[in-house]
Fold each of these.
Amino acid sequence: MDTGLHYKGFSRAEALGYFADYAWDTSDTALKEVTRYQSGPGQATAYMIGQLKIIELREYATKELGDDFNLKDFHFHLLAQGSAPLSYLEESVKEYVRCSKDKEQEGCKDVLNPVAPEEKQVSEFVGVIGEGSFQPVEKPPIEVYI
């Protein structure tokens, strides 16, 4: 759908038609998906590439760790990396696997326990960076937009 909209020039109606014909979906979800695809060229393609890479990394970890593979630990480790390039995620998962095999290796304590110790965690909200200089934008009345 993404490439149809942005490369082949599909209209919104054509995209919704494809959802109806090939995904058998005429619900509000289809409308939202087409809107999402329209607003970010390449978003769906990038999502799929990321999904495939994460599946590949999970298969790698499962194969390498065998019976010691723990899906919750894998997910926690992966999600703890935040929004990151796929090459970084791959390095991180390989490091996670290496450390899971031998927890005594140098640096593995931090790899396997990525959350700060309780005494170092932030316990209260202290504001937003730059909050003191924030100036709210005055919005024109709604009539201006109509």
Amino acid sequence: MSDYLLVFALAFLITAIATPVSIKLAPKIGAMDVPKDDRRMHKKPMPVLGGPAIYLGILVSVYFLLRDEARYKDQFLGIFIAATLMLIVGIIDDMRDKGLPAKVKLLGQLVCAFILWHYSLRFSGMANFFSSDPESYIVFPGWLSLIITMLWIVAITNTINLIDGLDGLAAGVVFIACISIAYVCTIHGRNETKFIILAMAGACLGFLIYNFNPARIFMGDSGALLLGLLLASVSMVGDTPTKSVTLFSTILPMIILALPIFDTVFAMIRRILSHRSFMEADKGHLHHRIIAMGFGQRRTVLVIYCICAILGIAGVLWTLQMKLEAIALIFIAGTLMFIFLGTRIDINDQIAAREEAAHVNEPMGRIEPVREKVEEIDVS
């Protein structure tokens, strides 16, 4: 068995074994998501402590295989420290009834970003695309490097956190992204990054056993913030901002994660136009709108998986210099997203129509509860 397959299998097994422990531990420490408003998709209290199991799966498997690896040792130490701090912030948020204040979570993310920057996980420059020399690059001053690095890490971290709205959604999206990035790592020979990415993929798959609909546990902020931080940081493992590194660190993740990034940007614009806070949750995300079309939770998640897979393939093709084909796939995925984001359905009329149809056409035991399909669709 190759080391890459081994790190994937270890992360999968450790997470799959640790998750039931998290399920039992969550009620004892108060890490439960109790549905108190109509934005929730679940009807009963659910454990919301997926982070520790995912953390163990990733960190233990990576340490087991890279403990004697000297190259980029300081950067891996920085990832470990920042990931541990982010996990703690997420667990505290999951344990509090109303969660941590948004400013406190943002402060935690900024501290984690500074730790990563301190350990040389940073944007130290960018490739000089106006030069014919592939090794030519522009060096950023320290202050600019810090600002760009912090913005990148905070943005990707929150992008993953915001997509975590349905059973299995965030874990599946991250899994698809990790598999795509791992393939690109193989092409570019980024073996150390490939270890962490495959560990993340294995941990997500192990967690999906319990998180896919109907979920027995939610990922929570402890898991979503952790995965977002790791996705943002592992792409910066390395030191020289050549064109290939610039492609890997920024362009590739933006293509592969285009769906959650676009959904986050769309949410920010929507909240600005409605004069609401950036941190205020609403019901207009992509997955809400797909459910509004009557897909149900499982089908909605699978639709989003498919769009993410298309973008993952596009990212791979882009790195292979097949840019026309990549643009075509990005256009297809973008068209699907715009179609779903344009959905406008009146929630009360939709509920009434579906309940009437359900009572007339289906036995009670065979229908999916109508209000679970459309309960939070207010997409104005």
Amino acid sequence: MGLLQLLFSFKGRLNRQGFWAGIGINFAFLFIVVNFFTHSTAFNPIMLFPLGGSLYSILSIAVKRLHDRNRSGKHAFILVVPMICYFIAPLAGETNAWLLGLLMPMLIGTIVFLEWGFFASFPQTNQYGEQGLSLKLK
């Protein structure tokens, strides 16, 4: 799987090695952009472009990893739940705010981290393609 297909395509399957390679490439890209190409302001509208591109790339990597686990890409919407919990937390009581704003996002994030990053691939061919591929630089 080539670099552009790894980072920007929603088709196919991606094994654990390819998943971590894609996440690492996105992390390195954002690290370089933030540390070397921006001014030290709290908000810079120019940063929305690299952030949006990286978000799209991470979403495509996650969908391909879900395909490799024999799950639909729709399961990536589980990442919306921690955001909803975080924004609803101030409206809840003191104890419930802690549960909604901190515990639930951490729990869901940990489950997603384990599912996508460490669990083995689905061994047989499935509706999303052959066995999961990794990054191959040509």
